[in-house]
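Running this now, will post back.
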Amino acid sequence: MLARVKGPLRYAVIAVLFVAAGIGAYLLGSYLRPRPAPAGTELQNPVPIQGLTLVDQSGGDFRLSEDLRGDVALVFFGYTRCPDVCPLTMSQLSSAYAAVGEPQDLHVVMVSVDPEHDTPEVIGSYVERFHPSFIGLTGANSQVAEAAKAFFVGYGGAGVDLVHTEYVAVLDRQGRLRYVYGSTAVPSLAQDIPRLLREL
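Update: finished.
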């Protein structure tokens, strides 16, 4: 067919074919190119989170793995009187949650490491400032200590001088700890969440 096309029209057809081939090669390359890894640190051996019961903002028992099973969860340990890291992290989680369209199969959970001050009402009021669907958890000192140990979170001190491990844990749909996002990686959650929801 191309042999029958003469003159400038032939060169125009050839140019269009080259452009189409180039676009096709680019699209194929984009499709085959490996996706960038999530910004968080992936655990090579996922850790099952089992047998943990805390107290939610309504005062009822919350079984961490059972009540979240089937969904993906972002879990952060902090406290309501924290002056800097906690409100910043919760704000970043709120922004990421909104940016991905507030999916129903994604939960944002804050566990207080200051249970003597952070009653169910206090932690509930705190997390709801960031989003009404966020879950606030507290409990007895022993319950919080057990949960923190399961998530490899350290904390100590008292009052506004509490110190604690500052990362967001990602639980998969089977209740296993799969990723941890340190403070520098948390801002990348908005771009990572769609992939995490697909793969976890």
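The radius of gyration is 24 Å. More later if anyone needs it.
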